[in-house]
Specification:
Chain B: Belongs to the universal ribosomal protein uL24 family. Chain B: GO terms for molecular function: RNA binding; structural constituent of ribosome. Chain B: This is Large ribosomal subunit protein uL24m. The complex is a heterodimer of chains A (216) and B (216). Chain A has 216 residues and is mostly helical. Chain A is built from six helices and three strands, in the order ααααβββαα. A two-stranded antiparallel sheet of chain A has the order 1-2. In chain A, β1 (136-140) and β2 (146-150) form a beta hairpin. In chain A, α3 (65-92) runs antiparallel to α4 (100-127). The longest helix of chain A is centred in the C-terminal third of the chain and has 32 residues, at 176-207. Mean pLDDT of chain A is 86; it is low at 5-26. Chain B is of the alpha+beta class. In chain B, strands 6-3-2-1-7-8 form a six-stranded antiparallel beta sheet, with no helix packed on it. In chain B, strands 9-10-11 form a three-stranded antiparallel beta sheet, with no helix packed on it. The longest helix of chain B is centred in the C-terminal third of the chain and has 9 residues, at 194-202. Chain B is extended. The two termini of chain B are 46 Å apart. The chains are: A mainly alpha (216), B alpha+beta (216). Chain A binds chain B through residues 1-7, 40, 50-52, 55, 59, 61-69, 78, 100, 116, 119-120, 123, 126-127, 135, 151-158, 164, 200, 203-204, 207-208, 211-212, 214-216, and chain B through 45, 47-50, 163, 165, 167, 170, 172-179, 182-188, 191-194, 197-198, 201, 213-216. β3 of chain A pairs antiparallel with β12 (214-215) of chain B, so a sheet runs across the interface.
Chain lengths: 216, 216
């Protein structure tokens, strides 16, 4: 079932060899407010901590914004706890118990972000008609490539910005021969790969005459 | 270990386009011994079978149609999609020595050889005879394998999950969300962004206004 990534065992908070010796001396381990960086004491010292499945985007879409907000921080704290565990494991040169928990948490967080972004895009499209939140434009760089240039935020206008004025968003004339050579190379590559594919297909046909014309 | 070596180990294995896939996984030492970098071997032509037409799954009962163990039935252990191979458990074996050191020959062990798809036929579970199989849709809309000779449905084999979890016997841990809570719908569509909704709920009031900046 969909559960959020669960526990991580904080087994490596204290060196494993010393735990059995220290247990007789003191029972309470005060973390001074850092308890949430460590797992439930029951899971300390275990090599396998069971964990449920990560949240799926479909399940997250049914949750309200407030719930998603809370879930994000819960997941963040869990991730910090697991990372602490991982680092301690490296320090003690031991295997981290159940490292797949970290992957599950990261994936859940990515999915939460996706859902929030989806809702934001939908609202923006309704209100402004713009799909992207950050402004940008199609520009051509010095090498002849057209790309989506994302705008940056500045305190001064562009005509007062010396570093921005030094950027060139056009292709100088001396670059044209190089562009032509690049184009020729691209066409040659395409022609070669097409011939190669045709050759392999004909060879396959003669070896396996009953094969279907596959999507290659 | 050096950081670069460690990182390259953890990353996804990159194989060249004309890599000859064998029974060993590409990242193992045995595979690296057989396929050294820069070594070119004669190309193997593999009959292209579309992903949706693939009928043999791991854990199926199949019968061998030709070769040394012709007529025997066995369970599929491994499927190699790159070469249209299938490894059966304990069938089509040859013998070799394993663990040879210095003077000792090591242990004499039976190792399986892969079988091509065309030498394999799925076994109909009702009469235990080999049949041709096609993918068809049931009345519910489920896509199943139907044997052409008898018309019976061949069910998908039950394979154990890699983490050993059986979904029917799962018990939630303290950090897992229960199925009811996960599927509970709390989302009410509104024209507010997540930030606005959360600020309202938490009583945060933001009266400061953005001074204005330039985007370019």
């Amino acid at each position: 079932m969909g559960e959020r990534p669960p526990l991580a065992a904080l087994s490596l908070c204290s060196p494993v060899s010393a735990v059995s010796q220290c247990r007789a001396l003191h029972t309470t381990v005060s973390r001074r407010g850092l308890d949430q960086f460590f797992d439930h004491p029951e899971n300390w010292g275990e090599t396998n901590v069971k964990s449920g499945a990560p949240w799926t985007a479909k399940q997250l879409r049914t949750k309200s914004n407030e719930d998603l907000h809370k879930l994000w921080y819960v997941l963040l704290k869990e991730k910090n706890m697991l990372l602490t565990l991982e680092q301690e494991a490296k320090r003690q040169r031991l295997q981290m118990p159940s490292p797949e928990r970290l992957k599950k948490v990261s994936r859940s967080m990515v999915r939460v972000e996706t859902v929030v972004k989806e809702r934001e895009t939908a609202l923006r499209l309704l209100q402004t008609g713009q799909e992207k939140g950050r402004p940008g434009a199609w520009r051509r760089n010095m090498f002849g490539y057209a790309y989506w240039y994302r705008y940056k935020e500045y305190a001064i206008p562009w005509y007062m910005n010396k570093r921005y004025k030094r950027k060139r968003f056009f292709t100088p004339k001396f670059v044209q021969p190089h562009i032509r050579l690049r184009l020729e190379k691209h066409l040659r590559e395409k022609a070669r790969s097409a011939t190669l594919q045709r050759g392999t297909r004909s060879k396959l046909k003669e070896k396996f005459p009953q094969m279907k014309v596959s999507a290659s | 270990m050096r950081l670069t070596a460690l990182l390259s180990m953890a990353a996804k294995v990159v194989v060249p386009k004309d890599y000859r896939f064998g029974t060993n996984r590409p990242w193992t030492a045995a595979a690296k011994r057989l396929n050294t970098a820069g070594k070119k071997r004669r190309k193997v032509f593999v009959e292209p079978i579309a992903a949706e037409d693939w009928s043999v799954l791991k854990g199926d009962m199949v019968e061998i149609l030709s070769g040394k163990d012709k007529g025997k039935q066995g369970r599929v252990n491994q499927v190699f999609r790159h070469r249209n191979w299938v490894m059966l458990q304990g069938l089509n074996t040859h013998f070799r020595y394993i663990g040879k050191t210095g003077e000792t020959r090591g242990s004499y062990v039976a190792s399986e050889a892969p079988l091509l798809l065309k030498d394999i036929a799925l076994v109909d579970p009702s009469d235990r005879k080999p049949t041709e199989v096609e993918w068809k849709f049931t009345e519910e809309g489920e896509r199943v394998r139907v044997s052409l000779r008898t018309g019976r449905i061949i069910p998908k084999p039950v394979v154990e999950r890699r983490d050993g979890i059986v979904p029917e016997q799962w018990k939630d841990g303290p950090k897992d969300t229960s199925p009811e809570d996960t599927l509970e719908k709390t989302y009410a569509p509104s024209l507010k962004t997540l930030e606005e909704e959360v600020m309202e709920k938490m009583g945060i009031v933001e009266n400061r206004r953005h001074k204005g900046s330039y985007w370019y």
